[in-house]
Structures are given as C-alpha cells and as structure tokens.
Design brief:
Blueprint lengths: L1 H20 L4 H18 L8 H26 L7 H24 L3 H37 L6 H34 L3 H12 L2 E4 L2 E4 H24 L3 H6 L4 H24 L8 H13 L2 H16 L7 E4 L2 E8 L3 E6 L4 E5 H6 L2 E3 L6 E10 L5 H14 L10 E7 L5 E10 L3 H18 L19
Helix pairs in contact: 1-2, 1-5, 2-3, 3-4, 4-5, 5-6, 8-10, 10-12, 14-15
C-alpha cells in the first residue's frame, strides 16, 4: 500500500512537469496512464474469481493500447520536443502494443494469469520510463538554471556552457537512465534471474590456447571494458574541445589535454581489458618482439606520426583554429589527432596532414601568437601628378577604413618611377588576419574611385611595333 502511494505521488509530479518540458498534448496520455494505475490498484481489492477484474483488465489493456498508439504518433510528429526518447520510443511502442494484444487475447480465452503478468510488466516499464525521462529533464534544467544565475560569467560564456551541458551531460544522464530502465523492465517481466543464470553459464565457456585459457566471459569482459573506455575517452576528450572549455583554459592547452587524455585512457582501458580476460601479459613477449620487427620494417610512419602527435600536444606549435600553410595546403586546423591532423582549406575541402609532416616540414602559422597582419595595396598613377597629394589622399583612405588599425597608422610610400615612367605607390597598413583580404579589396576600390574623382589618370601601357626593313 505504501509503495502504491509513493508511485501515485511520483506520477502526479510527472503529469505536472513533463508536459511543460516536452509537449502539452502529452498531458492527456499521462492522465490516461494514471487512470490505468488507479484501476489496477482498485482491482487488487476485488475477488480474482469474479468476472469484474477480467473486464477491468480488458478495459485497461484497451486504454493502454490507445495511449501507446497515439503517444507514439505525437512523438513522431514532434521529435524536437522529445529529443533522444523519440528514437527509442518508436521501437518500444509497437512492441508493447503487440504484447498488449497477446494479453488481451489471453484474458479473453481464460489465461488470466498470463494476461496480468504481461500487463503488469508493460505498465511498470512505461511508468518507469516516464519517471526517468522526467528526472533527466529536471536535472538538466536545474543545472542550466544554476549556470544562468552565475552573474560572474559573461553571457557568451554562460551560453556556451549551457549548450555543452545539453550536448554532453544530458546524454550521460539519459543513457544511465536507460540502463536502469532496462534492468527494471527485465525484472518486471520476472526474467532477470533466468537471464542472469543463462549469462553466468555462458560466460564459463572456455578455450585453451597453449598454456593460456580464454573464456567467453573474459572475451566479453575485454570488449566491454575496452569499448566503455573508448567511449569515456572520446567523451572526456570532446569536452575539452568545446568552445566554453577552450575559452576558459589558456590557448592551446585544451586540445593538448584532450589528445593526452585520449591516449592515456585508451591505454589504461586496453591493459585492464586484457588483464580481465585472463591473459598473462608477461607471456606476450613474443608479440612485443614481433611488433618491434613490424615497426622496424613497415610501421615507421605510424610510430613517427604518433610521436609527432604527442609533440604537437605538448609543444603546441599548432592549435585548433590556427590558420597554417604546409606544402601546398592553406587553411584552418580543425582537428589534431593521434596520427594525423585535419585542415579545412579556403577552397572548401578537408586536407588530412600526417602529424610527421607538421613536425618535419616547414609550416607557416599565420595566427600562432596573434592575428594582426600587415598588408599593402600597390597602385600607379601617371607621371604628371603631385606625389605629395597622392600620398595624403591614400593615407586618408586608409584611415577611414574601419578594419584598419589606427595605431600604427596606415602610411603610403612613394616608390619612384616604373619602367614606363609612371609613379609607383604602396599603402601599408595593419589589420586582423580575417579582414586582410576584404580590407584590401575595399581600399583598392576606394583609391580607384578617388583617383577618378580627382581626375588623376591611371597609367595605360603603350606598346609600339617597330618594323625594321633593314638593308642588304
């Protein structure tokens, strides 16, 4: 009785909160589940031999079938309101609807015990799924609210941390909740003990490889530990690559920590996994020797790129977001991996560069220490103008450009005469790397328009063809 009371209180809380966190139309289906639960509690006080409990059970099954069918349709129509749960629910709902049909038929033909058993398992599973999903949404919302109340953070920092919470923390809670739900669902259908006994029996299957005995449980243990380690390493490493973490830590530290953690965690996971599989690492000397021979003959580049990745992580000559030029590739570094790094070129394609090339070859990093760049605009005029007026005009155009630094001021140099007798000028100015190309375009157009407005004639190359008749 006390357990039913607590479940009833929790269901009332879910009915109050979940529609506000997802979609308002889910309310009617939640109320329907509450109604089913109340009928289920009331039916326990009726005589099981009478016809009334069977009729009530048929009514519950029919209502539950209607709820699963229509709620599944609602979630499919509004996937953004039911993130993550929509992909799981679209498989769960049809399966549970099929079980409800079996329970309905079992009740009609007199197999009342089977009908109650199937219905109870589905009801427990669905209620638990609702509670766990609501809990995940509530915990995430509380964390986001607390972050927004932290006034010492800038608005942009709070926004990036909130996005990271929804992107990283909420999936962890969700999948942890799914594991709990799966465990209690299996227990609700009363097959947990049978399943555990079957798994225990299967895990003791063994094979002998020389002096080493390998069991199915050891293999599964290795695969499980290694897979979980890779997922954890990827999750933790990706957290350090989020914008909010990159902005908090000193420049280049976050990618280095990310790469180092990935290598360390995967190495630890592999060692623990091999040990849990029952393999004596001291007897793997021949494998290590063979690996050394393999490295000597064919894996030099792999090891070189791996070591180069470690050097890039600790020395940090290149960081994610830097604009670099190596060989014929010119673009922005988007990823620094264990073996290779990715560059998003300005032509739009991804260039995969081995880490060894980033260490051994000449690399031009345009944004390592700062993003300030010195640029120049070259132009010529006819020889019949006053160079001093052109210098003043050019300097004024440079100062009026918003992307040009005012300190140091832009300055124009008179370079003398070219081979055709025209005057040469160079406007030098400082701007940011991202504004270098656009500022040069805008300033060049401004100089052209101003010269045209002032009546200054631009030089026009003249070519003469001289025919030499010659004399014999």
């Amino acid at each position: 009785m006390l357990l039913n009371f607590f479940v009833l209180i929790i269901l009332l809380g879910v009915i109050k909160i979940l529609p506000k966190l997802t979609h308002p139309r889910i309310l009617i289906y939640l109320v329907g589940i509450l109604f089913i639960y109340l009928i289920n509690i009331g039916a326990t006080y009726l005589e099981t031999s009478s016809l009334v409990p069977r009729i009530l059970k048929l009514l519950q099954i029919a209502i539950f079938y209607f709820i699963l069918k229509n709620s599944n349709k609602l979630i499919k129509e509004n996937p953004d309101d039911f993130i993550r749960i929509n992909k799981i629910y679209k498989f769960i709902a049809p399966f549970y609807m099929l079980i409800l049909i079996v329970a309905f038929i079992a009740n009609v033909i007199g197999m009342v015990g089977l009908s109650r058993f199937l219905f109870k398992g589905i009801l427990t599973s669905v209620v638990l799924l609702m509670v766990l999903y609501t809990s995940v949404k509530i915990i995430t919302s509380i964390i986001v609210l607390l972050l927004k109340l932290r006034t010492k953070f800038e608005l942009q920092t709070v926004t990036t941390i909130v996005d990271a919470t929804n992107k990283r923390f909420q999936p962890i809670l969700f999948w942890a909740g799914m594991l709990v739900w799966l465990l209690f669902t299996v227990k609700g259908f009363e097959v947990l003990e049978f399943l555990m006994a079957w798994i225990d029996k299967s895990l003791h299957l063994t094979w002998a490889l020389g002096e080493t005995i390998i069991s199915l449980g050891g293999i599964l243990s290795f695969l499980t530990i290694f897979t979980i380690t890779i997922l954890i390493a990827k999750l933790i490493a990706s957290i350090f690559l989020d914008d909010w973490m990159v902005s908090i830590l000193p420049r280049g530290i976050a990618p280095g920590i990310s790469l180092t953690l990935r290598i360390v965690l995967i190495s630890i996971g592999f060692y623990i996994g091999v040990s849990s599989a029952g393999i004596d690492l001291s007897k793997l000397g021949f494998i290590i020797g063979a690996l050394g021979v393999g490295i000597g003959f064919g894996l030099q580049n792999v090891v070189l790129n791996f070591i180069a990745g470690l050097i890039l992580a600790f020395e940090r000559p290149i960081n994610i977001g830097d604009t670099i030029e190596v060989d014929s590739e010119f673009g922005i570094v988007t990823n620094i991996g264990v073996r290779s790094s990715n560059i998003k070129t300005y032509d739009g394609y991804e260039a995969i560069i081995p880490n060894g090339d980033l260490i051994s070859k000449k690399v031009v990093n345009w944004t390592l220490s700062d993003r300030d760049r010195k640029s120049k605009v070259l132009f010529r005029t006819a020889s019949n103008v006053d160079p001093k007026e052109i210098l003043e005009l050019s300097n004024t155009i440079g100062l009026n450009n918003d992307s040009v630094f005012k300190d140091p001021k832009p300055f124009t140099y008179f370079k003398g005469f070219d081979e055709n007798g025209n005057l040469k000028f160079e406007l030098w100015y400082w701007t940011t790397f991202s504004e270098a190309l656009s500022s040069k375009h805008i300033i060049s157009l401004a100089i052209f328009d101003k010269l045209k407005e002032e009546g200054v004639v631009a030089p026009t190359p003249v070519r003469r063809i001289v025919k030499d008749n010659g004399s014999r």
